[in-house]
Amino acid sequence: MTKKSIAIDMDDVMTDAVGRFIELYQKEFNEDLPDLRLPGRNLDNTVPPERLALVKQFPHRHDFFKDMDLQENCQEVVRRLQEKYEVYIATAAMEFEHCLTHKYNWLKQHFPFISWTHIIFCGHKNILGTDYLLDDAERNLKTFKGTPLVFTAPHNTHLTAYTRLNNWQEVADYFLK
Ligand SMILES: [Mg+2]
Predict the structure, then answer these.
(1) Catalytic residues per the record (predicted)?
(2) For the chain, which end, N or C, has fewer CB atoms within 10 Å of the first or last residue's CB respectively?
(3) Whole-prediction pTM value?
(4) pLDDT for 93-131, tens place per residue?
């Protein structure tokens, strides 16, 4: 039987991109931004308006995508998923000029068991033809032709149109039980 296929997003699914914004905000302004972790929060409704433009430029910085923290249990669950599914990593990599090498190195370091044949650095994800897409961003989920699954992040807690997986343990339960 042909294995079903899953495309998995990187930022705020495998990595803690919200954490990187908080870290850089602290360095830039010498202030914490813990509220960015709260349900319903995003940059627009959390960062003071006069700082917003600068903070939105953080991903253009050279090191934004370097050595991001892993989401808990992600490595182990991806490894287990590979036994039953074709697992692809599908990450938008064309918007931010410095991200591609950092993302590549991050995958090599933390997921050496994922072949280069299963890594998709892309623009729009509507080109994907996998059976499932696990992503935190509505713009990717709403155009996906297979089964979209929303991975919970503070900025997507308002979404109700998709099956929601709150963490990697729930990803394992959904696909492997
Ligand atoms: Mg993402």
Answers:
(1) 9 (nucleophile), 11 (proton donor)
(2) N
(3) 0.96
(4) 888 988 999 999 999 999 999 999 999 999 999 999 999
Q: Do both 84 and 158 map to the same domain?
A: yes
Strands in 34-145 per DSSP E: 86-92, 119-122, 132-135
Are residue 47 and residue 78 in the same domain, yes or no? no
Task: Kindly give the distance from the C-alpha atom of residue 152 to the centroid of ligand 1, in angstroms, as a whole number.
Answer: 10
Distance CA(36)–CA(25), nearest Å, equals: 11
Same domain, yes or no, for 81 and 52? no
Which of 118, 97, 83 shows the shortest CA–CA distance to 10? Answer: 118
Assess whether 11 carries a catalytic annotation: yes
Q: Is 10 in the same domain as 92?
A: yes
Fill in the DSSP letter of residue 51.
H
Q: Which domain holds residue 97?
A: 5-16+69-175
CATH number at residue 168: 3.40.50.1000
| Nearest CA-CA partner of 43 in 133, 150, 166, 153 | 153
